[in-house]
Specification:
Blueprint: H1 17-26, E1 35-40, E2 46-52, E3 60-65, H2 75-85, E4 90-95, H3 116-127, E5 133-139, H4 141-151, E6 160-166, H5 172-179, H6 185-203, H7 212-216, H8 221-232, H9 238-245, E7 258-261, H10 276-281, E8 285-288, H11 306-319
Parallel strand pairs: 3-4, 3-5, 5-6, 6-7, 7-8
Antiparallel strand pairs: 1-2, 2-4
Helix pairs in contact: 2-11, 8-9
Length: 321
């Protein structure tokens, strides 16, 4: 599909990628009433879903997926939910396993390529909730899951009408390399702390597997993926996990309208996370690469961010075709 020329131009103070990333993560607030529902997964674990609804009864829903160590109350998720609710679409914000305030039941949890849980949510929306139109929007890690899901060799439900992915590490190894550079040291330390805190909670369930000596030896995000993420989810090592879970290789198979927005000043992304070739060769893939926005920091005046308004525009544009 033709490359989309971005119109996003934030105020001067938010043109710095670091500033927009930090401000969005620490200072943004979104007020949204949500109702929690717990569903069973196909492997007898559980997912906690946080719902919000449009004023009028709707046959459409947007499924929202958060990023690494996020949850369904993060403003970058609830902002989209609120905007879509105000425009006649229900929203379900998914908490990945272990991210809802309660640890999941198994040693495994969630990772960048875990698409079966998303499929369970889609099926729940169709079979139990009877939605006839489903949109999926993922942020960062959730964006990688979204793109991998719609590009995998699986039969997508006809109710899935579109996908949107924001600030996506399409090449997980490339993104991991960027996160380990000095420019991202503060972010890497924060991510590692949160991930290790989660493992220490899980240690209470699995003390024989998760020993203090192992956890204390993890100094980087890549070492975390080497020790836990890869082994807990059936991969040989971190590189095997990155290779098989990166969504970049699945883009060529996408058959529904899909929008990807990756800012050029996103310090988390490598050059390989900007799929110009794949977008040109797939008529269903729409790629927008604004100069600004950092990592999920597309700040504009008003209640909603640029990427949220673009998601709604993208969905509404499909209705007119």
């Amino acid at each position: 599909m033709p490359f989309i020329k971005s119109t996003f131009k934030p105020r001067i103070q938010f043109r710095n990628g670091f500033v927009s990333t930090v401000y969005s993560g620490l200072f943004r607030k979104v007020k949204l009433d949500q109702t929690r529902e717990r569903i069973a997964t196909r492997d007898a674990d559980f997912l906690d879903l946080d719902w919000s609804f449009s004023e009028e009864k709707s046959n459409a829903v947007i499924i929202l997926l958060h990023g690494l160590e996020g949850h369904a109350q993060r403003p970058y998720v609830t902002g989209t939910a609120k905007l879509f609710n105000n425009n006649g679409v229900d929203a379900v914000c998914v908490n990945f396993r272990g991210c809802s305030g309660e640890d999941n039941r198994f040693y495994s949890s969630y990772h960048s390529g875990a698409t079966n849980d998303l499929d369970d949510v889609v099926n729940h929306c169709i079979e139990k909730k009877k939605y006839t139109k489903i949109y999926i929007k993922g942020i960062s890690l959730g964006g990688n899951i979204t793109l991998k899901y719609v590009g995998e060799n699986r039969v997508l439900a006809s109710q899935i009408k579109a996908a949107i992915a924001i600030s996506v590490p399409l090449d997980l190894n490339g993104s991991a390399t960027e996160l380990h550079k000095l420019k991202n040291k503060a972010f890497a330390i924060r991510f590692r702390k949160h991930l290790l805190d989660k493992l220490r909670v899980k240690q209470k369930q699995f003390p024989e597997i998760l020993k203090d000596v192992n956890l204390n030896s993890i100094k980087t995000l890549r070492e975390f993926d080497e020790f836990y993420t890869s082994k807990a989810h059936g991969f040989e090592d971190a590189m095997d996990y990155y290779s098989k879970s990166s969504s970049l290789q699945f883009l060529k198979n996408i058959k529904i309208p899909t929008l990807v927005i990756n800012a050029l000043n996103d310090s988390f992304l490598s050059k390989s996370c900007y799929p110009l070739k794949e977008a040109k060769e797939n008529e269903n893939l729409y790629l927008e690469t604004p100069n600004y926005g950092g990592h999920v920091g597309f700040i504009e005046k008003g209640d909603y961010y640029y990427n949220e308004k673009r998601a709604l525009e993208f969905v509404n544009g499909l209705k007119k075709k």
